Recover the amino acids of this structure.
């Protein structure tokens, strides 16, 4: 196929080689030709199989990049033996025709240039969460979320790198990765719970930064989903998100990796992803190491490409090993409470940003448990229905269960709730105490007039997650149990009538101090 590459390059295309494709980049369009390879997990060995794969690629990528993938076109050869795209002569192969996207809009390029920040990560998390929410999930898809199916993929990775892994890891390191990943799969309960929670979807399968483009008008396009093997695309949504978080870590931005996970959990209400995310990050890094090792051993690829692949393989395999270890922040529990409209959600949000930690809200948890979306109103007679004592107790139990899952993954967590009773505050402290991590309680205060003003604004907007309104303030304050004595944990009081930047610094300073396990008052 060297003639095909040479002919198209002489027509002004730049060639990019991967382990499975030749990508010909023009000024306004891109054409992708499948390489005639059979790697076991994919088979492009015949023209017919490559044609089917091209058709599938256009169809599947229309989900996340509908205006990028245009058509499948023939690769032709004329009477003189020259190849072209949709030209004269007989059809000898097929190519996917795409609109060329701006390289400067690509996520990894923006990251390298310092132009990709937390707000971009938040938008990306929301975009992916929405995609997963609407992605199909049938019996066949869900089957790939069971441990036996996952183990098949994991074992295949180790088998396919058996002859090459020693170039990148020591025997002890290679055995450690293998033993750890397989041991994770021995805990069948965690993975089965993901299937029962309907978290197995027809996803993307190769969700990396180089496949994400941030358009100038605020749109996001994600290209290059897996089309050649459904078992790599049918998976836990966490397997998709972990590919992105792993990629952020590979690029040296573990902070953004954690922000991505936190925002995805918030948008999807999927905090149980933290029960499996370390496994999937390690798994995804090993997959990329395997792909790079395959490219490094490919004699048809240029020497420069093979050298880069060898460097990448080493980094990916080492990263796969590293995900067994704790991530960016020390695990801890921060509970943010206070009266209604005291500003606790704002404080919880920037506390989560400071720690790159997920925020778990009772308002959103209550509505999810009731089968509603956060914007739905569930207002009823005060302290009844979904806001009865029994219902509220169940909400707090679920919030604390989720917090336990996050902390066990080696990460901090922020809880956003009123914590109006001493019992609820002690229960939150109990999670931290049981897991042996620091606990901080942040109590938010604000003048009554400001709380009423905030509640009235909330009523006018009608879009707040909380259903609390001004007519509830008196009865809520009557039921709020103040922190009368120094509790056996760090306690910080924040006056939210003061500037946000001032309070943010106050919280940051408090979290930076060594935990005293005793109130500073």
């Amino acid at each position: 196929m060297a003639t095909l590459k040479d002919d198209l390059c002489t027509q002004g295309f730049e060639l990019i080689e991967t382990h499975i494709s030749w990508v010909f980049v023009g000024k306004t369009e891109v054409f992708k030709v499948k390489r005639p390879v059979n790697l076991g997990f994919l088979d492009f060995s015949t023209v017919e199989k490559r044609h089917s794969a091209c058709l599938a690629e256009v169809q599947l990528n229309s989900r996340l990049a509908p205006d990028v993938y245009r058509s499948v076109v023939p690769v032709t050869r004329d009477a003189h033996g020259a190849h072209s795209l949709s030209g004269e002569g007989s059809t000898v192969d097929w190519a996917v025709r795409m609109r060329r996207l701006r390289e400067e809009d690509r996520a990894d390029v923006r990251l390298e240039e310092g132009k990709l920040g937390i707000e971009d990560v938040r938008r990306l998390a929301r975009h992916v969460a929405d995609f997963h929410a609407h992605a199909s999930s049938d019996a066949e898809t869900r089957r790939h979320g069971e441990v036996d199916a996952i183990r098949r993929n994991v074992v295949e990775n180790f088998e396919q790198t058996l002859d090459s892994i020693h170039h990148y890891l020591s025997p002890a390191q290679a055995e450690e990765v293998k033993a750890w990943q397989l041991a994770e799969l021995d805990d069948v309960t965690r993975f089965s719970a993901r299937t029962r929670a309907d978290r197995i979807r027809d996803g993307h399968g190769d969700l990396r930064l180089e496949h994400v483009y941030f358009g100038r008008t605020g749109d996001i396009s994600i290209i290059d989903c897996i089309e050649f093997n459904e078992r790599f695309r049918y998976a836990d949504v966490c397997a998709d998100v972990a590919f992105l978080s792993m990629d952020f870590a590979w690029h040296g931005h573990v902070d953004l990796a954690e922000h991505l996970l936190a925002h995805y959990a918030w948008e999807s209400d999927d905090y149980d992803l933290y029960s499996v995310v370390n496994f999937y990050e390690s798994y995804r890094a090993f997959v990329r190491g395997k792909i790079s090792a395959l490219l490094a051993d490919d004699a048809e690829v240029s020497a420069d490409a093979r050298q880069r692949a060898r460097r990448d393989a080493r980094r990916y395999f080492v990263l796969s090993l590293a995900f067994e270890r704790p991530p960016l922040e020390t695990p801890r529990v921060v509970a943010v409470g206070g009266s209604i409209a005291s500003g606790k959600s704002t404080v919880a949000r920037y506390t989560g940003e400071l720690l790159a930690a997920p925020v778990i809200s009772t308002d959103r948890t209550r509505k999810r448990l009731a089968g509603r979306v956060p914007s739905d109103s569930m207002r009823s007679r005060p302290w009844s229905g979904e806001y009865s004592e029994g219902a509220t107790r169940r909400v707090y139990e679920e919030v604390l269960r989720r917090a336990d899952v996050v902390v066990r993954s080696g990460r901090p967590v922020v809880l956003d709730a009123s914590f109006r009773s001493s019992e609820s505050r002690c229960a939150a402290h109990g999670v931290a105490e049981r897991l042996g991590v620091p606990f901080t309680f942040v109590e938010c205060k604000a003048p009554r007039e400001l709380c009423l003003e905030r509640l009235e604004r909330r009523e006018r907007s009608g879009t707040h997650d909380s259903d609390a309104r001004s007519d509830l303030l008196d009865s809520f304050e009557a039921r709020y149990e103040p922190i009368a004595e120094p509790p056996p944990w760090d306690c910080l009081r924040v006056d939210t009538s003061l500037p946000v930047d001032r309070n943010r610094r106050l919280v940051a300073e408090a979290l930076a101090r060594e935990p005293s396990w005793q109130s500073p008052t």
About this structure: The chain has 20 helices and 15 strands.
